[in-house]
Amino acid sequence: MNKLTVLFYITFFAAVHGLTEEEKMAIHEDCFSQSGVSEEMASKVMDGVFVDDPKLKLYILCFAKKVGIMNDSGDIQVDVFRAKLGTKVPDEVKLNEIIAKCAIKKGTPEETIFALSRCTHGNKS
Ligand SMILES: *[C@@H]1O[C@H](CO)[C@@H](O)[C@H](O)[C@H]1NC(C)=O
After folding, report:
1. Average pLDDT of the chain?
2. Residue 75 in contact with ligand 1 by CB distance below 6 A
3. Lower CB density within 10 Å: C or N end of the chain?
4. What is the documented function of this protein (predicted)?
């Protein structure tokens, strides 16, 4: 993936709001190499396709931790999530609905953040 593609596709996550391009690239490069996810899989996320793949989950988890949406205990940081998502979903009622529906703790941190991402994406428009 070239740099422009990467920037485009990680901007897709409301999570990167407020970061500089350098910060976004750094997070991507770190998480990309840590998780071992394939470019093809990662770029599918752009189309809203969250393939149920362990490496993709690791990528998203790494990402979420770096931007502060999830902490090291695997707990969703609801305030951070709300602040980031609020930049894409200005309607407070809708925002609260999404949080109530999507910020649900699952069995593992990977599952939690994967479900949150998929759920949030399905709710955005
Ligand atoms: C993670 O967040 C949860 C709830 O917000 C908190 O109870 C827990 O202590 C935090 N863990 C760490 C390692 O910061």
Report:
1. 83
2. yes
3. C
4. May be a carrier protein for lipids.
User: What is the tens place of the pLDDT at every residue in 20-76?
Assistant: 888 888 888 899 999 999 888 877 776 677 888 999 999 989 988 998 999 999 999
Domains of the chain: 28-122 (1.10.238.20)
Between the two ends of the chain, the Cα-to-Cα distance in Å is 27
Q: Could you give phi then psi for residue 77, rounded to 5 degrees?
A: -90, 90
Which residues lie closer than 8 Å to 61 by C-beta, 6 or more apart? Answer: 70, 109, 110, 113, 114
Rounded CA separation 70/72 (Å):
7
47 CA → ligand 1 middle, Å:
32
Ligand 1: does its nearest atom lie under 6 Å from the Cβ of 87? Answer: no
Contacts of 114 (CB under 8 A, 6+ apart): 50, 52, 56, 57, 60, 61
CA distance 110 to 114: 6
CB atoms under 10 Å from CB of 92, counted, come to 10
Query: What number of other Cβ atoms are within 10 A of residue 87's Cβ?
Result: 10
